[in-house]
Design a protein that fits this description.
single chain; 285 residues; alpha+beta; 3 domains; five-stranded mixed sheet; four-stranded antiparallel sheet
């Protein structure tokens, strides 16, 4: 089977899979409220869902095997197969969650991702830590309260799972913002991050100037502006601005790309970051 045919079949099975999910949810809700649902209907819906998932898995394995036969290494082969069958948004969200969970492991071990021995790590989480810990506390209270108040076993299990999942997601975001700081490289490069959601590497030769520039912009945390700049907002503020010799491309959390000639970002200690940049400039000439 040609690769294009495999991809087309994968698209059709994905459409069927997303069509079946609301049906499965409707059957589940009907069973929970006590409506009569024939066992054959439930068994048929489950069998159809599992069969569709099995076809999707088989197509993924086939695309992976084809990429490996073409000489691709295991990781590139996985990316090729996933790119053919899995929507970009789903891939990006899955990647963010994997990185967030891994960041919890780094955080517990007090390790930092992507920081070399001669690099300078610049934290940025202090401005939002109190708010994020408040969310974590509220999520714990909500999860415990629902677990105590809901009497139906199935609904109890679902809400408990969703509560614990949401708690892990929030702790993962918090851990990623701690374990993945901004980095001033020993070569004068600058790596700007926002947890596991955003990662921009700026080579030293592309940096014209980094200056103090405290602002309190509105909008989302990763906010492209109409003037061609980009704001990485933490705690409703940015404290530094890096001016570039030419517009640099960046990847947004859900996969869209953009370019910026100026990037404004936040650092807990902007003076220390500027001093680290000056040291690397002197060391590299």
């Amino acid at each position: 089977m040609r690769e294009e045919a495999v991809t087309e079949r994968g698209h059709k099975t994905r459409v069927l899979l997303w069509t079946l999910l609301p049906v499965e949810l409707g059957i589940l809700v009907a069973a929970l409220v006590g409506a009569g649902v024939a066992p054959a209907v439930i068994a048929g819906a489950i069998a159809l869902l599992l069969g569709t998932a099995a076809v999707e898995s088989a197509l993924f394995v086939r695309l992976y095997a084809r990429a490996r036969l073409d000489g691709a290494a295991p990781r590139p082969a996985l990316r090729t197969a996933a790119g053919r069958l899995v929507p970009r948004v789903v891939r990006r969200l899955t990647l963010h969650e994997v990185r967030s969970v891994y960041s919890i492991w780094l955080w517990v071990r007090r390790r930092r991702h992507g920081v070399g021995a001669d690099d300078h790590a610049a934290g940025y989480n202090s401005a939002q830590a109190a708010m994020m810990w408040s969310w974590v506390g509220l999520s714990i209270v909500e999860t415990v309260a629902l677990a105590l108040l809901i009497p139906w076993p199935l609904v109890h299990a679902i809400t408990l799972y969703l509560g614990l999942y949401g708690l892990v997601v929030m702790v993962g975001i918090l851990a990623a913002c701690v374990a993945r700081p901004h980095v001033v490289g020993a070569d004068g490069s600058l790596r700007l991050r926002y947890g596991a959601l955003f990662d921009l590497r700026i080579p030293a030769e592309d940096i014209v100037r980094v200056r103090l520039d405290r602002r309190f912009p509105d909008g989302q945390a990763i906010a492209p502006r109409e003037d061609g700049s980009l704001d990485l907002v933490v705690g409703s503020q940015t404290t530094l601005a890096v001016e570039l010799a030419a517009p640099i491309s960046y990847l947004r959390p859900l996969g869209k790309t953009g370019t910026a000639h100026t990037v404004r970002f936040h650092a807990d200690d902007p003076q220390a970051l500027l001093a680290a940049l000056k040291r690397t400039e002197r060391a590299t000439g």
